[in-house]
Amino acid sequence: MIFSAFERMVAFRYLRARRQEGFVSVIAIFSLLGIALGVATLIIVMAVMNGFRTDLINRILGLNGHLAVYGETADLPDFDAFAKKVRQVPGVTDVTPLVEGQVMATSPSSASGAVVRGIRPDDIRQRKLIAEHIAFGSLDQFGGDEIAVGDRLARRLGLKVGDKITLIAPEGTDTAFGTVPRLKTYTIAALFDVGYYEYDNTFIYIPLEAAQVFFRLPNAVSYLEVFVTDADRSTAVARAISAALGGHVRILDWQRANSGIVNVVSIERNVMFLILALIILVAAFNIISGMIMLVKDKGRDIAILRTMGASRGMILRIFILSGASIGVVGTLVGFGLGILITRNLEAIRQFLEGILHVELFSAEFYFFTRIPARIDAHEVGTVVGMALALSFLATLYPSWRAARLDPVEGLRYE
Q1: What does the pLDDT look like over 19-32, one tens digit per residue?
Q2: Closest residue by Cα to residue 283 from 315, 336, 319, 329
Q3: Which range among 6-15, 55-64, 173-182, 326-335 shows the weakest confidence by mean pLDDT?
Q4: What would the pLDDT profile of 97-145 be if each residue is shown by its tens digit?
Q5: Burial class (CB within 10 angstroms; exposed 0-12, middle 13-18, buried 19+) of 248
Q6: What Rg do the C-alpha atoms of the chain give, in angstroms?
Q7: Can you give the chain as a three-state secondary structure string?
């Protein structure tokens, strides 16, 4: 072994300071707690940031697809022929024709802006993110004048399954008496809750044919929604689709469409990592200061050990082991604490909200109805490795000072 039994015994004995050396032990304890809190905080925050990014992208892609194929003009005619050609492109898994437009959704008691998407009944039933998150009602009734509405939007309008909702188009009908608002009343067949506030609070799905009539797009759609096997290769698939369609289309991939959100999350994640890593760095400096005080306090003991035959290497290893053990224990405690809190984060949030009677995680501001957390083994390993490395480096200078101590100087005034 690197450390002999004698070196381990002396190193751990130095960590159990006597009463008159209690201040050194206090510094060691605070150093250990600092590293533990730093590691735990970094693991928790990085897991939450990863969860935010993963859930955000999954929800965006689950509802919007990887690519959107638009026509050269405002709409896309002959869309079934285009969809057939797109499905034959390698890497494409699904193509869905959609009609999309903004409306005013009204109920007897309230009104709100909303986004309407026209989709075929079979397509919406295959959309797992919606089909598996139906809060009330069923998609089996979706069709004709039966529609699906976001659960939060329905609650704001005071509606439930079976109630009537009226949609008002932004463009009215011109008559001899002026422009008359164009509206249509539908029945709510299902309420969906995908866990993403923007969609649950804004989106309404209606049958494709009904949407074509409502938005005056006969035999046309707004765009084709395309899903691919690998989201990271969506740009290459977009070029293949453009070539297959003769270049007479406009294609927007998910990365460009949501570049602002994805970039902000990535930047925040990197900045948070750097800021929180400073906690571990500060704790490492505490180890340095505590070790320097320990070396100064143990000057007489070091001199005695040297006169008894202990080599400089032995003294060096004793103090390295003494200081590094603080970092190792602190890192392990922080690792366990971070994993434990991360896996129970939602339960902790609900407990605190119940005790404090305060909403700590508002879906209106954070887009999600729960705190997402995703532990990345590689990142956790990086955090643990960084903490152990800093703890080890923090012991080098004080240990070197201890090994260089002259026994004569140490015992001169004894």
Answers
A1: 555 555 677 788 88
A2: 329
A3: 173-182
A4: 999 999 999 998 889 999 999 999 999 998 888 888 899 999 988 988 8
A5: exposed
A6: 32
A7: CCCCHHHHHHHHHHHCCCHHHHHHHHHHHHHHHHHHHHHHHHHHHHHHHHHHHHHHHHHHHHHHCCEEEEECCCCEECHHHHHHHHHCCCCEEEEEEEEEEEEEEECCCCEEEEEEEEECHHHHHHCHHHHCCEEEECHHHCECCEEEEEHHHHHHHCCCCCCEEEEECCCCEEECCEEECCEEEEEEEEEECCCEHHHHCCEEEEEHHHHHHHCCCCCEECEEEEEECCHHHHHHHHHHHHHHCCCCEEEEEHHHHCHHHHHHHHHHHHHHHHHHHHHHHHHHHHHHHHHHHHHHHCHHHHHHHHHCCCCHHHHHHHHHHHHHHHHHHHHHHHHHHHHHHHHCHHHHHHHHHHHHCCCCCCHHHHCECCCCCCCCHHHHHHHHHHHHHHHHHHHHHHHHHHHCCCHHHHHCCC
Question: Residue 145: what residue type?
Answer: D
Q: Which residue has the tokens 């990014």?
A: 53
Question: Which amino acid type is present at position 184?
Answer: K
